[in-house]
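Internal QA ticket QA-208
Title: Verify multi-chain structure generation after dependency bump
Assignee: T.L.

Test input:
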Amino acid sequence: MRIDLNADAGESFGPWTLGADEALCEIVTSISLACGFHAGDPVVLRGTLQLARRAGVSVGAHPSYPDRQGFGRRVMQLSPRELEAMVLYQVAAVAGMSRAEGLRLRHVKPHGALFHLVMRDDEAADVFVRAVRSCDPDLCLVGHGGSALARAGQRAALRFVSEAYMDRTYEADGSLTSRADAGALITDPLQAAAQALDITMRGCVRTRDGSRELPVAAETLCVHGDTPGAPAIARAVREALERAGVLVAPF
Amino acid sequence: MRIDLNADAGESFGPWTLGADEALCEIVTSISLACGFHAGDPVVLRGTLQLARRAGVSVGAHPSYPDRQGFGRRVMQLSPRELEAMVLYQVAAVAGMSRAEGLRLRHVKPHGALFHLVMRDDEAADVFVRAVRSCDPDLCLVGHGGSALARAGQRAALRFVSEAYMDRTYEADGSLTSRADAGALITDPLQAAAQALDITMRGCVRTRDGSRELPVAAETLCVHGDTPGAPAIARAVREALERAGVLVAPF
Amino acid sequence: MRIDLNADAGESFGPWTLGADEALCEIVTSISLACGFHAGDPVVLRGTLQLARRAGVSVGAHPSYPDRQGFGRRVMQLSPRELEAMVLYQVAAVAGMSRAEGLRLRHVKPHGALFHLVMRDDEAADVFVRAVRSCDPDLCLVGHGGSALARAGQRAALRFVSEAYMDRTYEADGSLTSRADAGALITDPLQAAAQALDITMRGCVRTRDGSRELPVAAETLCVHGDTPGAPAIARAVREALERAGVLVAPF
Amino acid sequence: MRIDLNADAGESFGPWTLGADEALCEIVTSISLACGFHAGDPVVLRGTLQLARRAGVSVGAHPSYPDRQGFGRRVMQLSPRELEAMVLYQVAAVAGMSRAEGLRLRHVKPHGALFHLVMRDDEAADVFVRAVRSCDPDLCLVGHGGSALARAGQRAALRFVSEAYMDRTYEADGSLTSRADAGALITDPLQAAAQALDITMRGCVRTRDGSRELPVAAETLCVHGDTPGAPAIARAVREALERAGVLVAPF
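Actual output:
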């Protein structure tokens, strides 16, 4: 059995620091780098790529709507032409900077409101995938299994990597508990480790209210860089998985 | 005899249009594309690359300080670390988007205040060249012959392409007439054509006051996209050169 | 009979010019100034205020979503707290700069996608009005008669000024013809003048297909600064109105 | 004897937090608010004004070069026209938002590289003062005693408030120790309190190397919001001053 652990990274900007990139790079096996549209800037991006290289972590791009003030979490209505060009620009910038650091960009995972759009909207997902593919047809896509993005990736013959969460709870309908609700975040490392083991070894997750088990297939488990105690959570998850004999390695 | 004609391009932004990219792409043989820091955005950049592909024009990146409001023409004191990361980001973005359109990025020419910095400052020129080289060691540098950038390019074994102007006058010390002075711009197509012939065929240029001839070596002649009547100037220059038997083609 | 003529103004940005502010300020009686979020910058804003002062034109603020690249025309989902603070900031900046030029800010008219939001959404309109009112309770609101903004203004005891268009056609349901459809823009000065006379003197407008007359009440008629030939349209409208004995003056 | 204690505030941006505004507002008597150009945004600005109102703290504007990524600390060459318009816009925005919260803007203190410019350059200081004055001639200016800004304020009949630092050391020539040098920051609350007492009660400060006492006149003492332990430093300073019988109150 094998799983990848991923974290968002490079979400600082100018004088402002966010996340625990250095600590997380010692624990996870993949990171998704902010591309400068919702967070990150060239200096931050380069520093984070250098961290990744030293830690031997696999790197991906985390493109977003162009909205720093809203951290890419506000819905914006872009035309397909705008969306495609923006994704292309961001992936190209991070891919090229990765190459300059001797790394190969491995995956693309949409961020924030754009993530939610391409999980459910087939047309937008096709646009997104077209942009990624035109940058590099060997890139993997990361998102929810069974999503619009997964289908679009299949149509375009791009590898799709399904993701589940170690630090978020699930509702009975399979969706994540809304961040607006209590209990949406898992901040207890032991609870996160238990959920990670369930997903990885048994392909299921217990719902937030404990009433049901849902089937969840995942090749990578995400910890959000801004979840309080993210490094402790990721460490507990990794240790539990390795103790159980799971190989923790990039997809 | 052979010469390249180049123009800056892709300097529109969002709702705002600047330059005559479509007309110029029919006349010049190379364009330098704004990368989104002083001008351009992903939609503009992509559209301009598609223009270039249809017209068979060679493409380069035109990186700048991060200053849209000042169009990259205001001096900004960046640290070497900031400068390197910013040039890297911009060149990577344009190189990747070029590749996605089936084009190969061929050159890098700094813009505005950054251009003036790397023409005269050896340390900044080394930083600039390091960024370009780490993106792609086959890229050419474009700038004034004999400049700090030319020396830095030589140290790093990057091809340097020297540029002269068809639409700007020269002072007796070899510098361009300041844009603040009358007569700095050549807007008469015949005068531009005469200067282009002098530079290309005789390796010299007559100074603004007509008093002297200066030696000028150039492999490419620039027309600024925002010079009034730029397409007419470029057309007159091209026709005069071809009539004189000069091969007008990318460097 | 009396009517105000208004135009959007100050929509240039840095090196990029948009609109015909100087010509329009000689014709219209009110302008709505971009505040720096979708267009405009401090230099442009100040220059446009100076134009307005010299021309004796009444000034208003034209706040927007924070989206230069999309010119404020892309829907963005802001929280009420974000919306209120952003409108407040923009109106405060323009009001203070107006005062510094010896002018009194007279009205606020939302721009682009924000305009459409507060025309139809009562909650957003209340937020918008609260922001305007906390800046200055003597400010007027400008928008469609009968809109959510008109109702919100009434609840907050702010004067509401209803607007109709000299350069846009109307559909049978009273809405404007979508910019995506042919015939949405009126670019013939005579047609614009005829529509302006209908609205001002008879309180009605003929629909695009000519089939019906709709009742339209307006205290101000708008010409969009980016409509081709905007100054010629505004001049024809003004002359026709004055010839018909209508007083053209600020509301 | 009487002194004001001031801190920079409102330097968070979007998702990024900086400084300890809430804690500092309980201790200091004046704050200088980022205006959205180097830090701050409308939501942050409004929240900080509400903090200030609840804490009874006097408010000022802290205008900057337009450079978020560089936090306003990078030199930029603006023309006088650009500088004046930018200061005007920022002060107008913060003054208007203050008024909307029931507060009166009391002072303006330039930030970062702009601060250093107007401390030494008389022409730039005149431009700065003209912008401030045209917003509100009752505003105070804050800066170093004897600086170009102090002289420009005097010429324009604006009150100038001289500032010294509780958290920075001084060199023998009266300048602050460069942030690049060890010992530039005072992070020991007791050392800060001793320096604050020296400045306030004896009008002098001991140089970093302890060799000399320099005369320093100050009506306000600054603590930087990003100095480690800023609230503890400010509290120790305030307690020491009050114990010594100094009235700590806004200028």
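Spot checks passed. Residues 2-248 of chain C form a domain with the TIM Barrel fold (CATH 3.20.20.370).
Status: verified.
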